[in-house]
C-alpha cells in the first residue's frame, strides 16, 4: 500500500467516525429524548458532554502526541471511544448515557489533531492545506451518513443497534491504526516531558496564538456545536420541515460540509503557492460565516433550510486555522499547537451546544420543541460573540516570523 494511503486512510476514517458520533444526535437525539423523557436543555447537555471530554483532554493529548507519536496515541484512544460507544448503546439511564458520551469524546479527541500532526511529519508544508482539507472532507462523509442514512437505519434497527455497530467499528479501526500506519513516525529520542510542558506554556502565552485563537474558537465552536445537534431541531421546529425531510437536509448539509473543506483546502494551497497569505482567506471565510448567520435571523424561518448549506460551507473555513497557526511554530510542536487551539474550541463548543438548548427551553412552541423566536435569539447572541472575536486578528499586527 502506498505511504500516503497507509497514513491518510486510517486517520481520515477515524475522523469520519468521530464526526459521525459528534453529529448523530441531530437525528438520534429525538428517539433518545423520547425514550428517556429529555428536555431540549437535557439533550443539549448530554450531547455536549462529547465536547467537554474533547476539551479536557486536548492539552495532555498534545503532549502525548509529540512525546509518543500520533499513531500510538490515536490507536489507543480509539479503544476508549469504542468502549464508550458500546456503553452508550446499552445504557439504561441518563447517567450511563452521559458516561458513554464522555468516553466517546475522550476517545476520539485526537482524530483531528493527531492526524494533522501525522501529516505534518510525513508531508511537505505546501501540501498540508489540501491534505488537511481532504481529511476534513472525509469527516463531511460522516456528517452525510449522520442524516438520512442514519434516520433510515434507526427506523429499521433502532438507535441502540447503530451505536453498537459504531463501537465495534472503532475497535477494528484502533487495531488498523496501530498496525498499518508506519511505526517510525516520531523522532528516536523525543524531548523530555518537562521540556514539552515548557514549550506548551510558551505557545499558550504567545502573541501569535492569542491573535488567532479567539476567531478560530468562535467560528469552529459555533459551526460544530450548532450544526452537530440543533440543525435538525431548527429544520423541524422553526422551518416546519417533516422529520424525514429534515434528515435528508442533514445529509445534503454533510455534502456541503465536504465541499467546504475541499474548497478551503484548495484555496489555502493555491494561496500558499501564489505567495498570498492563507490568513486572508481564513478571515474572509469567517466573515462569510457571520453573514450567513445574520441571514438566518432576518430571513423567514420557512425559507432558511437552504441557508444551512452555506452555514456549514463557510463554517468549514476553520480547517485553515491550524495551517495559519502552524506557520508560527516548529513542526515538532504541531501536536501541542493543534490541541491548544482545539482546547478552546471544544470548551466553547460544549458551552454553546448546552446553553443553546437551555435558551430554547425559554421559548417553547405550542406543538412541542422550541419556537422560531428562540432559535433567532440564540443566533443573535452567537453573531455578537463572533463579531467581537474578529478584533484581535484585525487589530494586532501579524508577527514578522509568521509565514503565509
Structure description:
With 404 residues, the protein is mainly α. It has a single domain (3-178, 196-395), classed as MFS general substrate transporter like domains (Growth Hormone, Chain: A, Up-down Bundle). Helices cover 79% and strands 0% of the residues. It is built from 17 helices and no strands. The chain has helices at 3-23, 25-36, 40-68, 70-89, 94-107, 113-122, 128-145, 148-157, 159-180, 193-204, 207-238, 243-273, 278-298, 307-315, 319-326, 334-360, 372-395. The chain is globular, with a radius of gyration of 20 Å.
Brief digest:
This protein is mostly helical and 404 residues long. The protein is 79% helix and 0% strand.
Topology:
Blueprint: H1 3-23, H2 25-36, H3 40-68, H4 70-89, H5 94-107, H6 113-122, H7 128-145, H8 148-157, H9 159-180, H10 193-204, H11 207-238, H12 243-273, H13 278-298, H14 307-315, H15 319-326, H16 334-360, H17 372-395
Q: In what range is the share of β-strand residues? A: under 5%
Supply the number of structural domains: 1
Structural class: mainly alpha
Report the C-alpha radius of gyration, rounded. Answer: 20 Å
Treating each run of at least 4 consecutive H or I residues as one helix, how many helices? 17
Q: Give the name of the CATH superfamily.
A: MFS general substrate transporter like domains
The overall strand count is 0
Shape: globular
So what's the CATH class? Mainly Alpha
What profile does the largest beta sheet have?
A: none
CATH topology: Growth Hormone, Chain: A
What distance separates the N and C termini?
A: 33 Å
Amino acid at each position: 500500500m502506498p505511504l500516503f494511503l497507509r497514513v491518510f486512510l486510517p486517520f481520515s476514517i477515524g475522523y469520519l467516525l468521530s464526526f459521525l458520533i459528534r453529529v448523530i444526535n441531530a437525528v438520534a437525539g429525538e428517539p433518545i429524548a423520547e425514550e428517556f423523557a429529555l428536555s431540549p436543555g437535557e439533550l443539549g447537555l448530554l450531547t455536549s458532554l462529547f465536547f467537554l471530554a474533547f476539551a479536557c483532554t486536548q492539552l495532555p493529548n498534545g503532549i502525548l502526541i509529540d512525546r509518543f507519536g500520533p499513531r500510538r496515541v490515536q490507536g489507543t484512544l480509539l479503544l476508549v471511544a469504542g468502549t464508550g460507544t458500546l456503553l452508550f448503546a446499552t445504557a439504561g439511564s441518563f447517567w450511563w448515557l452521559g458516561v458513554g458520551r464522555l468516553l466517546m469524546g475522550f476517545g476520539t479527541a485526537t482524530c483531528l489533531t493527531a492526524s494533522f500532526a501525522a501529516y505534518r511529519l510525513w508531508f511537505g508544508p505546501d501540501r498540508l492545506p489540501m491534505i488537511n482539507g481532504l481529511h476534513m472532507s472525509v469527516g463531511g462523509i460522516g456528517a452525510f451518513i449522520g442524516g438520512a442514512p442514519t434516520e433510515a437505519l434507526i427506523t429499521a434497527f433502532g438507535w441502540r443497534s447503530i451505536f453498537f455497530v459504531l463501537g465495534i467499528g472503532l475497535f477494528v479501526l484502533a487495531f488498523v491504526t496501530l498496525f498499518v500506519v508506519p511505526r517510525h513516525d516520531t523522532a528516536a529520542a523525543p524531548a523530555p516531558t518537562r521540556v514539552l510542558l515548557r514549550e506548551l506554556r510558551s505557545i499558550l502565552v504567545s502573541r501569535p496564538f492569542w491573535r488567532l485563537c479567539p476567531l478560530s474558537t468562535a467560528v469552529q465552536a459555533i459551526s460544530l456545536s450548532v450544526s452537530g445537534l440543533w440543525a435538525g431541531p431548527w429544520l423541524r421546529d422553526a422551518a416546519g420541515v417533516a422529520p424525514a425531510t429534515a434528515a435528508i437536509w442533514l445529509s445534503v448539509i454533510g455534502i456541503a460540509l465536504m465541499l467546504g473543506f475541499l474548497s478551503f483546502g484548495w484555496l489555502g494551497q493555491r494561496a500558499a503557492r501564489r505567495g498570498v497569505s492563507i490568513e486572508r482567506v481564513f478571515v474572509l471565510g469567517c466573515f462569510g460565516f457571520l453573514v450567513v448567520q445574520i441571514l438566518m435571523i432576518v430571513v423567514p424561518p420557512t425559507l432558511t433550510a437552504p441557508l444551512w448549506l452555506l452555514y456549514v460551507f463557510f463554517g468549514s473555513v476553520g480547517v485553515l486555522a491550524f495551517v495559519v497557526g502552524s506557520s508560527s511554530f516548529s513542526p515538532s510542536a504541531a501536536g501541542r499547537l493543534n490541541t491548544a487551539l482545539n482546547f478552546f474550541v471544544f470548551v466553547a463548543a460544549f458551552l454553546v451546544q448546552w446553553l443553546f438548548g437551555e435558551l430554547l427551553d425559554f421559548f417553547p412552541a405550542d406543538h412541542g420543541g422550541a419556537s422560531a423566536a428562540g432559535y433567532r435569539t440564540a443566533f443573535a447572541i452567537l453573531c455578537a460573540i463572533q463579531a467581537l472575536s474578529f478584533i484581535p486578528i484585525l487589530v494586532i499586527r501579524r508577527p514578522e516570523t509568521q509565514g503565509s
